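Entry:
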Amino acid sequence: MIKNLFIKTIIFLFFINTLFAKTGFFQEGINLYNQNKLEEAKFKFEQEIVMNPKSELSYLYLSKIFNKQDKKKLEEQNLNTVMLLNPKNEEALYKLAKLKLLSSDYKKSKELNKKLASVCQKFCNLSDKLKSEIENLSKK
């Protein structure tokens, strides 16, 4: 009986520490990202993902880091992961559409922007601008 109680207490304490660690890694990552300490921030977001594999915002911030580091493939991979976790993430839709436009994939960019326009709340103006960019560049 006492042994069971002891084991349950240990497990409970472990899970509480795990929950606190989740939020701590993400917030530390944000703070480091805002200080432009990209490698340290990347590590914190990766730690958050280990603890919480469905951390949509951690993947989004990783994509931002890879964008600043000009690592387009890694940026795209993380944006695609965000889209898997939340297909209505406006920022990820916009950034992925923009990335596709930069790689001259007008069809995919247009498709993503159309999806963005159907769900937009905060990114509606950017979606309209992107639509114009796509139209102008695809005519050339």
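The chain has two domains: 1-86, 87-140.
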